[in-house]
Structure formats: C-alpha cells, structure tokens
UniProtKB/TrEMBL annotation:
GO terms for molecular function: protein tyrosine kinase activity. It holds the Pfam family HAD_2. Gene3D superfamilies: HAD superfamily/HAD-like (3.40.50.1000), Putative phosphatase, domain 2 (1.10.150.240). Signal peptide: none annotated. It comes from the Bacteria. This is Haloacid dehalogenase. GO terms for cellular component: cytosol.
Length: 232
C-alpha cells in the first residue's frame, strides 16, 4: 500500500508573504484596537483566528466576530493572490504523486478558505482531500483547544485501510502534537512560523531546512517502514 502524506498549509506549502499578519493588523486598526508586536502576529499564523485574537491579541469578545469578518474580506480580496508557493514544493508534490503517494492537506484554516487558497495557488489538484476547521471561529474561549487533533483524525479516518503509513508535515507544534496523539510520524519544516525552540520542544528530533531535506526524510521513513515490513 502507498504512504499517506498530510501537509499543513500556511508556512509549509504556501508562504502568506504578510497576507495573514498584515490582514490581521488592518482589521484590528479598522476597529481601533491595538496591533500586537510582529513576533506575536507571526505566532497567530497556524491556530484558528478566533483563538489567536482572544489569546494572543487580547481582543474583547464583543469585537472578535467583526475583526474576523474584516480580516477575511481583506484576505479574499488580496491575501490569497499575494501569497506564494514555497520554492520546490510543486516538484516535490509531483514526485510524490508519481510514486503513488496519497496526498492530503490538514490545516486549521477553515476548509472553504483552504480550498480556495489552494485553487488560487494552483495546488488543489495535487491533493485527494483537504481537511480544515469549520468556518465558525467564534466558539467560546473557554472551550478546550484540541489544535489539529480532530482535523487529523478526520483525515486518517477517510484513508483508513488505504495506506502503509502516514506522515504529518508541518511548521508548528500543532502539527507535531497531532501526529504524536494519533501515533503517526511527523516531519517538521523550518521555513515556516515556529518560534525559536518551538519544534524541538514539541518533540522534533530534526527539522528539514529545505524541501530537498523534506523529501529525503520522507524517503527515509518510507524505506524504514518497508524494510521492517510493518505499518504505522
């Protein structure tokens, strides 16, 4: 059976090129709210926007919905087209697809927006499925944050019985934690938005510094599984 490789989106496949952080800044300014420091804005790339606005930007609950609305309008108007695919990603996806690898996206971005972004960037056709969050980011801050765990669970359930082993590829601790929770391998990439030490703290033994290194690590995992005659 083929391998299943599950990719994160922002910071892994696509560089938002300031579209996310800039859009958040503009939305906050439009509501007369303070804009966090750059390193805080960078940390907001990955988790659900509502969670980030409450926890990192300290946006009052009454303002969260309107900030999200303004951000999404800005992102759809200019952010998607202003983003760019990281160099080397397309050839890597083509190679994996040619080898018969099952490819999917697992992201905390709402699914319809993730699909639209992948279409705009010309990547949608490489993936059999795209798994994201619900459009509603307005759930109460008191709700338990499970990160990517339930989204990855949905993807793994879809492909149950169809893969020899699964690998989660991503740039944030959410990716590594979800993979560990579900007992699958993970490859951390170093060109995204993780803070210094974040990936190591989440259990990454190594971090791929380039798409070439990512491909080498995926190949090594695949060969190791095949030689052991097992699956994961």
């Amino acid at each position: 059976m083929p391998a299943l490789v599950l990719f994160d989106l922002d910071g892994t496949l696509v560089d938002p090129a300031g579209a996310i952080t800039g859009g958040i800044s503009r939305a906050l300014q439009a509501r007369g709210l303070p804009v966090p420091a750059e390193h805080v804005l960078d940390a907001m790339v990955g988790p659900p926007l509502g969670e980030s606005l409450r926890r990192l930007a300290r946006v009052p609950e009454a303002e969260v919905g309107e900030v999200i609305r303004l951000y999404r309008a800005d992102y759809r108007a200019a952010g998607m087209s202003g983003s760019r695919v990281y160099p080397g990603i397309v050839p890597a996806l083509e190679r994996l697809a040619a080898e018969g690898t099952l490819l999917a996206v697992v992201t905390q971005k709402p699914t319809p927006i993730a699909v639209e972004l992948l279409q705009v960037q010309g990547l949608a056709g490489y993936f059999e499925s795209i798994h994201g969050a619900a459009m509603d980011d307005l759930e109460g801050a008191s709700g338990k944050d499970l990160g990517k765990i339930p989204i990855l669970a949905e993807a793994l359930e879809r492909y149950a019985g169809r893969f020899s082993h699964a690998v989660m590829v991503g740039d944030r601790h959410y990716d590594l934690e979800a993979a560990a929770h579900h007992g699958i391998d993970a490859v951390a990439v170093g060109w995204g938005f993780a803070a210094d030490g974040e990936l190591a703290a989440a259990g990454a033994a190594t971090v791929a510094a380039s798409v070439e290194e990512l491909q080498e690590q995926l190949k090594a995992l695949d060969e190791g599984i095949r030689q052991s005659g097992g699956s994961r």
